[in-house]
Design goal:
The protein is α/β, with parallel strands linked by helices and 299 residues long. It contains 8 helices and 11 strands. The strands form 2 sheets. A 7-stranded mixed beta sheet has the order 6-5-4-7-8-11-10, with helices on both faces. A 4-stranded antiparallel beta sheet has the order 1-2-3-9, with no helix packed on it.
């Protein structure tokens, strides 16, 4: 029997099964999708103690030598520009799930000086500290910063990796100063490529992605937590399609995937599906949604 939806409590869910086609973590995972609100989640949820085993040392967030890491450096530079436009370089900024500190480095390059991070993986946190940043090892919900500590909290592909994303968003709300901004990205299951690929969908990223939202239920969650001026934006990341094709070929044709999680010609897949993703961004929704919202300022 499937577990009721962790967001709306509905027991009406659809089930399917998937594997780790990128890093070959052994096992098979049952995935539930709520028919009522659209939430997608592993069923049953993993234990928090299970999560570290899902991340190999070659995982791109911890390294600088994969094609994904190289692409992320360009994305981080663009994000840093957007963030400084939102709050200015003098703001106190927290990067949740900061990995090796690449995003903090991009913010520093934009003139930001009050930067902190939190990272669950000890090795990733240590690499960020080696770059000179203040980084707490652990989860945001356990970090002991006082309330109203930050002007902006970035959650770049974080909430899909945790067993209780609502608790993470609630903690972020508490840590923001009045008028502060939450800025994040996460997979969006309300897109065409998820419907087509299902267990092969590139942004499913099993078993590292535990719970995944749609833009609709994520907006509702942010509003319920007290955020205002919630804005959703569609990016041009092709991962739903490009990694979806890679995963399909790995399963059906035995395509060998290197330790980095991406084949050498993955860049070609990105180029092929970039126009498709661009059309989705204009006409509908992509596999990635950026969310920006504010905590109400003091009256």
């Amino acid at each position: 029997m499937a577990t009721a939806c962790h967001l709306c409590g509905s027991e009406a869910v659809d089930l399917f099964y998937g594997k780790d086609y990128e890093h070959s973590v052994p096992g098979q995972w049952r995935i539930a999708q709520c028919r009522t609100c659209g939430l997608v989640y592993q069923d049953p949820l993993p234990k928090p103690t299970d999560l570290p085993a899902f991340y190999p040392s070659a995982y791109s967030a911890y390294n600088n030598d994969t094609i994904i890491s190289a692409l992320f450096r360009t994305v981080y530079a663009q994000e840093a520009k957007r963030i400084t436009r939102l709050v200015g370089p003098a703001a106190r900024i927290l990067d949740v799930g900061c990995g090796n500190g690449a995003m903090l480095q991009a913010l520093k390059a934009r003139g930001c000086v009050s930067l902190s991070g939190v990272e669950l993986d000890p090795e990733g946190a240590n690499r960020a500290r080696q770059r000179g940043f203040e980084v707490v090892t652990g989860e945001l919900v356990d970090a002991d910063w006082p309330a109203a500590s930050f002007d902006l909290i970035r959650l770049g592909h974080v909430i899909e990796h945790v067993c209780d994303p609502v608790a993470v968003l609630r903690r972020a709300f508490d840590l923001l100063r009045p008028g502060g901004v939450i800025y994040g990205e996460t997979p969006n299951v309300a897109c065409l490529d998820f419907k087509l690929f299902k267990q092969y969908w590139g942004a499913l990223h099993l078993p590292r992605h535990v719970i995944m939202f749609s833009d609709i239920n994520l907006r509702r969650t942010l509003l319920d937590l007290g955020f205002q001026n919630v804005k959703m934006e569609w990016g041009l990341r092709t991962v739903g399609w490009s990694a979806g094709i890679q995963n399909f070929l790995a399963d059906k044709l035995g395509l060998s995937i290197p330790a980095s999680g991406r084949v050498r010609w993955y860049g070609l897949l990105i180029l092929v599906f970039l126009p498709v993703t661009a059309c989705q961004a204009v006409l509908s929704k992509t596999a990635n949604v950026r969310f920006i919202a504010r905590k109400a300022p003091l009256s």
